[in-house]
Amino acid sequence: MTTRRRSALLAAVASAAALAGAAVLPALPASAAAGCRVDYQVTNQWQDGFGAAVTITNLGDAVNGWTLTWSYAAGQTVTQAWNATVTQSGAQVSAKDAGYNAAIPTGGTASFGFNGSWNNSSNPVPASFALNGTTCTGGVTNSPSASPSTSPSASPSASPSASPSASPSASPTRSPSPSPSPSASPTSIPAGARQMEDLGRGLISVRSGSGNLVSWRLLGTEDIGTGFNLYRGSTKLNSSPITTSTNYFDSGAAADATYTVRAVVNGAEQAASETSLRLANGYLDVPIQPPSGGTTPDGVAYTYSANDASVGDLDGDGQYEFVLKWDPSNAKDNSQSGYTGNVFVDAYKLNGTRMWRIDLGRNIRAGAHYTQFQVYDYDGDGRAEVAMKTADGTRDGTGVVIGSSSADYRNSSGYVLSGPEYLTMFNGQTGKAMSTVNYDPPRGTVSSWGDNYGNRVDRFLAATAYLDGARPSLIMSRGYYTRTVIAAWDFRSGSLTKRWTFDSDSAGSQYTGQGNHNLAVADVDADGKDEIVFGAMAINDNGSALWNTRNGHGDALHVGDLDPSRAGLEVFKVDEDTSKPAAWMADARTGSIIWSNASCGCDNGRGVSDDVWSGSPGAESWSSAVSGIYNTKGQNVGRKPGSANFLAWWDADPVRELLDGTHIDKYGTGSDTRLLTASGVHSNNGTKSTPSLSADLFGDWREEVVWPTSDNTALRIYSTTATASRQIYTLMHDPVYRLAIAWQNTAYNQPPHTGFFLGDGMATPARPNIYLR
User: Fold this and answer.
1) How many whole angstroms separate alpha carbon 665 and alpha carbon 651?
2) Cα–Cα distance for residue pair 269/211, rounded to 1 Å
3) Peptide bond into 735 cis (omega under 30)
4) How far is residue 82 from each of residues 37, 115, 484, 575, measured CA to CA in Å?
5) Residue 731: which of 760, 751, 707, 702 has the closest Cα?
6) In 297-409, where do the E strands start and end?
7) What is the pTM of this model?
8) How buried is 471 (Cβ within 10 angstroms: 0-12 exposed, 13-18 middle, 19+ buried)?
């Protein structure tokens, strides 16, 4: 970029930010007549273009079908749109509803987005908009807080000490253009379809020897067998469309080669994807910024390490951003007394730009069981939100304090056993607190949760579930050793509202003590709606008890299609109670035990289940306190793998690999074979030795693994260099798997599973019933 063009770009960015009074490049809403209001937000800008999000608020009579029109004054051109059909003639632009969002009731909204090109010297806001021919003159729509009167007030406060800034020295070599999905939003929502992320191709180039492995997503809205053309620069690399895989090894290519891919539909080549993200050394470093350390009231110094991470499309550009939790070095298990440093939660773009930082404050204790955060698009606006438990003194990503900034409820043992508790939904783009409510369930009397010093009262879990079968709800819980309470929340129109609460005190004593240090979500009864597998029991989509094995608490849990010869899903779990089976597999619909291992007379702390060996059909299951590896019938069929921790689809075949610490191994009947040893990184959570995240983040269906670097200055993302010869749609469009990525950071992290069998001898997966937002 020339100096003049760079200066023009920076000037345009500064101008847009100044208009909005914010740092996310929004433009002031150009709105109109008494009948409507329009919010037009430039979400990002780059050398050749920009992305925009538009929200229409109907202030007049209900409409069923809409067209929004405006005019550009500086030669801007719309190039690609989603959730609307956008056409342009000269400066005049017309956006028509996508069918499923045609109806806007009085007071209701409709949203859409697009990419556009601009001339790099000016990108002014349209002067006016018209809805169905009527000029919109309504006021500005602000982010609604809509908190109940019992919720805390937000008090202005100084900005966080570390301002959100990009790390200029280590950005990935990716074109900055966003990557919305090449597939258009549906004109109508299919019956029973679930709202899912509108992802781009996730195109990556991973250096391997003297070439590059280039891979991309097959979207969940596309058919397996869809063809693709791959381009290095302007050179097409394939002679005929690639239909049997979503990767290509470009032998002899330069390490800095740039790629795009185009789907071929009915013989017609579609629009080009975003340019490839380059993993020059087999990995990509995303720069991160450690918080400053401190000293506790009793004089103990502490520093910070990058801990668990999650992903979501926070800005609606079709590309994932990271949400990262920072733990102080004095984080505590609930059984341990002592003060801890504050917990921080950051959001980062892939180039290391920090979008925001949330400081949970002194009244949220640090440790694996205290802060469970969820990242998901709950309101369906195409941008993910972030939810977590908060307290007086929590500072949101804009520097505003929730509740009292001076309150300190820590007792002399460092526990927080008094004071208000809140649940907050944060804006994923800015970190702003949008809705804060009282946390349910409240702690009440500390001893009613199993002890009086603060251990069992503060055992929290979190997840996301499609309880109505179409849109996601937030799941938050408290307690699992004795009393268990689970609450479901919806986030709609800027407000958190409770859907239901399950309480073992009212459900019956048989439901006490059945929870794990983790949970899983899936539609286990095939009614189209999700259930919560809460350790040894399952809770139905309506908050009622579904089943209960009565096998009690444990540390590891797996839910998926573990036995493809049986209908539905299965559950594999290990137990801590010495009077219960050491491990068991059950039907996920009914909870009936399929097979079990006899009690080991011990706390069986770890267990894993998935297809790691092609020598037996379906999943193999094993656990730390039981010898051998077990097939789907509960028969010991061989040597136990060398680890019982995480898993990853890594090499060319669909059999899964073993992920433990900072390495990946392939199981063999005689020994494990090392496939990857990550260098310069650390695992998390002590002896749990888990990555920050393992998920299908980019490229084809194989998974990436994310570890923090040893100095905690970057998240290092590793991706496979093995060429695979099969097409599977991106796992992030499989609802069971995507929800598993959302809950993966919860307490004792567990690996994700798919809702279909992915392993040796697998059938072609059915296309998921989803629609994209």
Assistant:
1) 10
2) 26
3) no
4) 20, 9, 42, 47
5) 702
6) 301-302, 304-312, 321-328, 344-348, 354-359, 374-376, 385-391, 401-402
7) 0.79
8) middle
Nearest to 153 by CA among 420, 485, 339, 341: 420
**Rounded alpha-carbon distances, angstroms, from residue 615 to 165, 654, 667, 762:** 51, 13, 11, 14
CA 365 vs. chain centroid, Å, equals 23
Q: Which residues pair with 95 in a beta bridge?
A: 68, 86
Order of strands across the sheet with 714-718?
A: 283-287, 714-718, 704-708, 693-695
Q: Which of 204, 376, 185, 190 is nearest to 280 (CA)?
A: 204
For the record, the structure tokens of 611 come out as 């297809």
The answer to whether the beta carbons of residues 584 and 597 sit under 8 Å apart is yes
For residue 65, the surrounding DSSP H or E stretch is none
As given in the structure block, the two tokens for residue 539 are: 């809770």
Q: Which two tokens stand for residue 723?
A: 């060429």
The whole-number mean pLDDT for each consecutive block of 10 residues of the chain, a chain of 773 residues, reads: 37 37 36 71 72 87 92 89 87 89 85 82 88 79 35 42 35 35 52 95 97 98 97 98 98 97 96 96 97 95 98 97 98 97 98 98 98 97 97 98 97 97 98 97 94 96 98 98 97 96 97 97 97 98 98 98 97 96 98 98 96 97 98 98 98 98 98 98 96 98 98 98 97 98 98 98 96 93
Report the 10 Å Cβ neighbour count for 413: 12
Q: 742 and 714 in contact (C-beta within 8 Å)?
A: no
CA distances from 138 to 36, 38, 61, 182, 560 (A): 6, 8, 14, 33, 49
Q: Phi and psi for 735 in degrees, rounded to 5?
A: -55, -40
- The backbone region for 564, taken as left when phi is positive above 0, alpha when psi lies in -120 to 50, beta otherwise, is alpha
What is the bridge-based pairing of β-strands 194-196 and 770-772?
parallel
Largest CA distance in the chain: 77
CA distance 767 to 727: 12
